[in-house]
Amino acid sequence: MVIGAGVVGAACAYYASRAGLRVAVVDRGPVAGGTTGAGEGNLLVSDKEPGPELDLALLSTRLWRELAGSLGEAVEYEPKGGLVVAAAPAGLDALREFAAGQRKAGVEAVEVGPDGLPELEPHLAPGLAGGFLYPQDAQVQPALAAAHLLRASGADRYLGETVRGLLTGPDGAVAGVVTDRRELSAPAVVNAAGTWGGAVARLAGVELPVMPRRGFVLVTEPLPRIVRHKVYAADYVADVASGSADLQSSAVVEGTPAGPVLIGASRERVGFDRRLDPVVLHRLAAQAAALFPVLRQVAVQRAYRGFRPYLPDHLPAIGADPRVPGLVHACGHEGAGIGLAPATGLLIAEQLTGARPSLDLTPFRADRFPPSAPDAGLE
Amino acid sequence: MPTLPSEPARGRAPYDLAVVGAGPAGLAAAVTAAELGLRVALLDAGPRVGGQYYRHPAPELGAARPDRLHHGWAVFARLRDRLRAQPRIDHLAGHHVWAAERGEPWRLHATLGPDAGDRVTVEAGAVLLATGAYERQLPFPGWTLPGVVTAGGAQAMLKAGLVLPGRRIVVAGSGPLLLAAASSLVSAGAAVPAVVEAGSYLGYARGVAALAANPAKLVEGAQHGTVLLRHGVRLRRSSAVIEAHGTDRVTAVTVARLDADWRPVPGTERRIGCDAVAIGHGLVPQIELATELGAATRTVPDGTVALAVDGEQRTSLPGLWAAGETCGVGGADLALAEGVLAAYAVAGRPAPRGALVRRRRRRAFAELMAAAHAPGVGWTDWLTPETDVCRCEEVPAGRIREAVEELGAGDARTVKLLTRAGMGWCQGRMCGAAVACLAGGPTDRPDSRPLSCPVPLAQLAEPPA
Ligand SMILES: Cc1cc2nc3c(=O)[nH]c(=O)nc-3n(C[C@H](O)[C@H](O)[C@H](O)COP(=O)(O)OP(=O)(O)OC[C@H]3O[C@@H](n4cnc5c(N)ncnc54)[C@H](O)[C@@H]3O)c2cc1C
Ligand SMILES: Cc1cc2nc3c(=O)[nH]c(=O)nc-3n(C[C@H](O)[C@H](O)[C@H](O)COP(=O)(O)OP(=O)(O)OC[C@H]3O[C@@H](n4cnc5c(N)ncnc54)[C@H](O)[C@@H]3O)c2cc1C
């Protein structure tokens, strides 16, 4: 029983049913109605430092390639590669060091000198110090990815039903869910409720400090292909890893098959405040224009925002909750849930069927956080 | 800004009130508020005041008598004169507001043109949203053919440029605007072989009291009726254009009778030759500047979502008022009354009784009309899988149904994400109502549009003022 029809829940359903389990997915809204429908589809290894998240990302990269064989076109999979650029030599040195570490972990990273940049990205601003090309970075359209994974899973769907409580067996183990329409019993319940994963954990009486981290994305009018890779400036990596609640933004600029260029995404912890913030738009636009001056000629047609599911150490919660038998977590992927979904789904399926795990799940345990004072940190 | 010596000291905002939209509601509000002593900014995306109703040709066109196309031109002319005589109003024409920011003061972000410098931020102590409405369309096979225009668009073309969309024009859809459009078209010399109204008008009978309280509305309706009668135009009720024919341009339409749910009744189809079709299914309040800030809304009986306001035209957000079509579509007279009432409320003065009475009567009438013209659920029967629902992104009905039935989309937003319907230039203003119906999800939520209109990236890249 999977709670959440976002990309993570859909991937859990897909791999679980491929492993021979009978699966049902419940969501209070439609498919991709949560953060998945408000994200960009960057599948990045380039922004991750060596560690458990990078391991997940590399596993996912492989799985996305496999999935592309059957679903590639439907989910607009594009193995376009990422290009990280540095404005000044000092920035390039930092990138070089970062890439050296990543290479040891299995990341492909190719240094590009200043003269090589125009060949890769003809419209890039002149005068940059250089950059690194990451051929493993790719892209999907997130909502399509969730919808097609869910369809391919063949799982029973209960869309438009909110989970209000959990069924428990005599031994206290979770044994199913109670929605506003029915009870559904199952020996395992997967919490793939994204940013609302903390609330679902509370239904089982345990704490999981998932918090919203807001992001805005700007979408331009449709353009001919002027941006070929995912292009971003070196500071992005620092922003991603930052734990600060304040606004961070460094624009990732990318083209889409449909034509619009996406410019995303800011990061700030402001609870679930949906209001548009002109300062955020300004920063994203200014940074995008600094990378691609030609964008100054185009119109921003729309903007959207979403709330990333953020856990304090930037790692998701994946796997059985040691505190509550029957409860399995797959949430808290912050700004990388689209990318990390297949690996998450595979690991959950392996654990549910008792197969040997592809990765060590210890860093993703849900009970790794110190208990907080009542309500602290919950926004 | 000239200030009256008697004026109390105010906050730092250069304006006490910023009015967005210079249609009947915004114009009446701005003029009234200024006459009550407030310093007012009146912003509108268009070059001239007047909005949709008092749309008039550019002076360069030298139209001899723009008033011929207008009921109530005299009312407009008086308002315009009061505006011109009013030193406390800055009319900021060509200012398209793309976002509003709450606070003290409120900040309105506007774009004036394509260049980096064409950006203005207007600060004011309070904001009145009078941004009007846009037309609701329900697609049918062939509606993307050249020659098929919107009813309000035809009306607007006529009022602004004095051109006709064709010579033989079928007017179709639902709502009182159809009669107004048809009457303008025949008066301007077009032939109108039929006015095809999907509603039965039976709904009106239930609200006799509201009808009796609105003699002016009846007279206006009767005037349109008389004009149409004089030109031999037939009104077909409970009927719809279910297909437009033609290859390069529309040459004919198929009209069918509808059952109570708006399902075409088989065997009632008839073909009518024409070289243009003007269609419209009423209007949708344009309210994103407020709803993006979290303002409360209500669902109008015609299925559209409008801003919820109290008796003083106050929205649920302190400092934000609304008047006119943003509060539910009700026509120019209601918009004028609400504009006046909002101005009194912002100025902290007791409301004039006349405007209160007019608002009560017109609002009751508007709700009645809204109920009578609410689309029946069966309209989707006239779509074929190939019919484009979203014209900007060319998304046919079949793809939308697939997204709902097979992929798990359940509302307009997820249909958009899975099919791109509503992602194009008009941001779903054209197809939003149709997509919401096909998605089958809740229709009581306003569309999400964080940017009210496209903004040149160069302007966003400038630091906010
Ligand atoms: C602006 C922005 C840009 C981003 N860019 C990227 C990117 O480029 N690459 C990337 O990999 N990631 C990106 N992300 C992050 C990514 O979108 C998320 O990590 C991912 O979508 C999380 O997916 P999910 O399935 O866990 O959550 P969701 O998609 O939110 O799904 C959770 C679901 O659970 C449902 N739910 C919650 N509570 C209940 C309940 N009680 N009962 C029933 N259902 C319930 C919700 O309705 C929801 O549908 C971005 C995010 C944002 C905001
Ligand atoms: C196309 C069309 C044609 C119509 N024709 C008729 C008709 O012939 N007869 C009739 O009785 N009724 C007609 N109506 C109905 C009309 O809406 C009302 O009768 C009346 O004009 C409503 O007044 P209002 O002040 O509420 O809004 P409007 O008159 O619509 O005025 C709204 C104003 O706000 C401006 N605006 C909107 N958004 C922004 C923004 N973000 N920034 C800056 N400015 C903005 C617009 O440019 C417009 O001038 C028509 C409506 C439409 C949409």
UniProtKB/TrEMBL annotation, chain B:
Cross-referenced PANTHER family: ANAEROBIC GLYCEROL-3-PHOSPHATE DEHYDROGENASE SUBUNIT B
Domain of life: Bacteria
Ranges for domain FAD/NAD(P)-binding: 15-331
Keyword Oxidoreductase appears in the UniProt entry: yes
SUPFAM superfamilies linked: FAD/NAD(P)-binding domain
Source species of the chain: Kitasatospora paracochleata
Protein name per the record: Thioredoxin reductase
One Pfam family linked to the record: Fer2_BFD
Swiss-Prot/TrEMBL keywords: Oxidoreductase
Domain BFD-like [2Fe-2S]-binding: 389-436
